[in-house]
Amino acid sequence: MKWVRNMNIQKSERNEMNELFDENAIENVIRFHKSFPKYQETPLVRLKNLANFLGIGDLFVKDESFRFGLNSFKVLGGSYAIGRLLAAKLGKPMNEMTYELLCSEETRKKIGPITFTTATDGNHGRGVAWTAAQLGHKAVIYMPKGSSEIRYRHIKETGAEVYITDLNYDDSVRLAAHNAKKYGWEMIQDTAWDGYADVPAHIMQGYATMAYEALDQMEKMHGKRPTHIFAQAGVGAFAGAVLGFFNTVLEHKPVGVIVEPEEADCLFRTCKANDGKLHHVGGDLKTIMAGLACGEPNPISWKILNQYADLFVSLPDDVAEKGMRILGNPLRGDERIVSGESGAVTTGLVYRLMQDAAYKELREQIGIDRNSVILLFSTEGDTDPHMYRKIVWE
């Protein structure tokens, strides 16, 4: 494993990024998601025996495998971004947007049929395609080469057009953007570039539902708040949303640890260079953590992470494998969590940090001890059941 501490932390300062997660913004997000018939809070699992085993105060895992029946948190961002886009077309404020209104015949007549497009390893695209279908619209989804066949089929089952390209993730994004412009489609992508910032920001806001639920559950069920948050990162939208939310609403700022696969560690490299530029990773981005196989940082989320993240970690696939086995085979008395490759990597990292003497100094640097309350997010379940079984069994 490699890691680098962030020398640019300014947790006490507020800026325009905090406005993404202020009280009014979060109320709109929560209200919108709760209007969906399938909305339910996902479980916050307390792994008390694992925490005792590792020598920490408490360990909580937000299990997103139950989100809207789609086995991943990603639908939160895509659905909210679509809601914001449709609100603009209707000329209505977001606080009036509900699932029922967007499904109404009146709305469909006013805005007509829309085709949404995005690039995805599977989970984000499935969420966009599912939302489009729920609201009576179409979706065209592009996947990078080497994508899972079963994730492809899951998206196809929503009624979307789906294509596995011969490109890596970042080039698939460019293909989707090109075709959106060419055919007049609406792009719902979680990374940003010049002239494309609103939708990625709205996707990040959508992820705040999960963070809000986690904090509310910790406080009401256990009377606790996190001292440390470990968040996995692809382009950084999820990690930026999580740290942005908690650092906006909490006076005591938690330690933030950002985790990436070593084959796609663009945020780690950007932090390490510390030269004011975003650093990209090219090539095939080969890692079992398909949801994190992104080589180009989201500049919006980077502003948040550069302000609030304490540590960036680049690690090999076997850390994610270890996390999957730990969560799937818990200590007696702890609840089992079925967590996929991208979902379990933070659990694997916490285990390695606490069990390997080689990381004693790093543990001390970020203040993990018997008083620490660590919050993790299992961002996906077994979205590829064949791969899940292969890893946890073989």
General description of the model:
There is one protein chain. With 394 residues, the chain is an alpha/beta fold. The protein has helices at residues 23-34, 48-54, 75-90, 99-103, 105-111, 123-134, 149-156, 169-183, 198-222, 237-249, 266-273, 299-308, 317-328, 345-355, 360-365, 385-393; strands at residues 2-5, 44-46, 58-63, 115-119, 138-143, 161-164, 186-187, 228-232, 255-261, 311-315, 373-378. It folds into 2 domains: 2-73 and 200-393, 3-Layer(aba) Sandwich (Rossmann fold), CATH 3.40.50.1100; 75-195, Rossmann fold. 45% of the residues lie in helices and 13% in strands. The strands form 2 sheets. A 7-stranded mixed β-sheet has the order 1-10-9-8-11-3-2, with helices on both faces. A 4-stranded parallel β-sheet has the order 6-5-4-7, with helices on both faces. α10 links the parallel β8 (228-232) and β9. The longest helix has 25 residues, at 198-222.
